[in-house]
Amino acid sequence: MSATRRRAAGSPDSVGQRVRALRRRVGRTQEELAAEARISLGALRDLEQDRVTQPRASTLRRIVAVLCQSPAEAHELMRLGQGDPLLAHHLLIRALGPLTVEVDRVPVDLGSEPQRILLGALAVRPSTVVSVESLVELIWGTNPPPTAVDLLRSQVSRLRRKLRSSRSPGSTSGVLIANRGGYLLSVKDNQIDHLVFQSELERARRDRCDGQLESALKAYQRAMAMWRGDPLADLPVLHLEPAVAALVRQLHAAILDYADTAAAINQHEQALPMLYRMVEANALHEPAHARLMVALAATGQPAAALGVYSGLRERLAGELGVDPAPEIQKVYQAILCGHTPGEDPPTEPPLPIRVVERADEAAPTVPTQLPPDSIGFVGRAAALAQLDAMLEAARHQTTGTPIALISGTAGVGKTALAVHWAHQVADRFPDGQLYANLGGFGPDATAAQSSQVLESLIKSLDSRVPVPATLAERTVAFRSLLARKRMLVVLDNARDAEQVRPLLPGSADCFIVVTSRDSLPGMAVIEAATPLLVDLMSMGEARALLRSRLRADRLAVEPDAANELIELCARLPLALAIVAARAATNADLPLAYLAEDLRTERVLDALRHGDAATDLRRVFSWSYLALDGATAGLFRALGTRREPEIDLSDAAALVGGPVDRIRQHLGELTRGQLIKEYRPRRYALHRLMHAYAAELAAA
Fold first, then answer.
1. pTM of the predicted model, to two decimals?
2. Which of 37, 64, 166, 667 is the most exposed place for a label (fewest CB within 10 A)?
């Protein structure tokens, strides 16, 4: 007997055993089934006795037409009959637990940490392009080596070789594909465990809808069997990835459905292991605790069920200052009365439940943390309209958290725009507005730590809630406090995506505004944040800014000087505000004199106004100091040119180096908003930034 026959014979999952079970369920004899399916009686007997393990597809389809009562049953029977295994043999990637790979059923050593992160990031998002930039950031953080892109290509090449099957090259060719500036993992559903999990989950839910609860329970069990632990348990750098979090949410929803299905056919004990696992990982998850209590009571363990309730009640009271939800209280009351929830109600009235009193503690207040709005805010009509459109679109969003990502060069007014708009729409967020300055670019050498920011936000939401110790626990607590609340959260002056991600709520009811000098492209890719670039002001906006701060007659008397001031200030709002303040404090000083002062090469000296926070050199330096050495060198070199514009080939000639590498450095400068790519491969610095680069070069 062949190995296939030995595995199939007598197996409850063999096609023959499945046909026999289905035939008996619908009340057919072998003779009746053979006649209805138009096959010979001998062929049917051979199939049911596992003498044939892979019948002809046409034969199997005719049997399916007679026996199967749901699409899920038909799919499963066809899969078994055609030898399609639940898990592939030639290539199998497991992400539901520590990342592992088997090729031709032999474990593969993935080697270096970068290679594991690369595969893990692609494995949780199969058939989805992950940009090179995102992969570089995941593998090397925010300060990757200059050769990171080349190193990534090498890792991809080595990984392709490791994923290739020698027995069946065709089934593993084209698994790792370069596509549109990134890479994607192209796999069949049975080549990666979480796709098998999702497929079995869909089959279970179809069977459940069709009333086939026994079949649904088996499909749930096959789905649960895919899980060996937390997704990518050995790669903590990926634990905050939205795709990983989505897998955990799918598991939790599946466990609850699994428990409900088991309860419906009085097989509560089947779901107990997964329910225990879920409540251990989610100590405040009330629906999971309720189902665990039901299952324990139904399997003759009422004391254990009451103990589960007591533990949950103590944790909710101690950590959140609340009582269990009414639904779980009803389960508790039923068990106290000796009644298994879900059965007919008891004749005696339920015993009352003691409610935890916390009258000595004040209820949490609605936070209103927005900084004061800018007096005389002008312009930015297009940007404000974009933000309004994002908020309107968020009303129809049911998954994910809507994020507006405001970026722009130093001094362009990102914070002013965010705060002004936030005040305009504050009344649409009845649960409050949170604000945090992340200090990403400023006089301090280091940005605010996400963990410290979370501590402050948690305390501002509810001072009664103990602040957990670790970053991950604080993130969970923060998201729990914001669950089902409609709040506006402004995260100002972010350094990078890694700083922001732990601060994002998990609710689609919240709206997030992030401002940064960095364009944070990784957040646009992974969190689907909507970018909004704040550019230099138009001439009309710049005139409106000056009018809001100076007497209108001064501009009317010297219109040409006013226009020249605007151009000499590069239409940069911070520079215009400095000039306006200088003019306002010297009411008799002609605007033409101020313009003459700004024509010098030391224009940044002329814009000093005695306040370190508005010293343009210092403000620009916070962006410059964030650059790596080679990129900073290119920025200084741009200051040696008389013209503030340059194309890619001239930049490569200016500093000497491969064009690809110079393109990367120019990309970093563009991402940090120190230069602008105004046409493909054509770059420019605004006048004041060019002056700053020239000073650095001279120094």
1. 0.50
2. 166
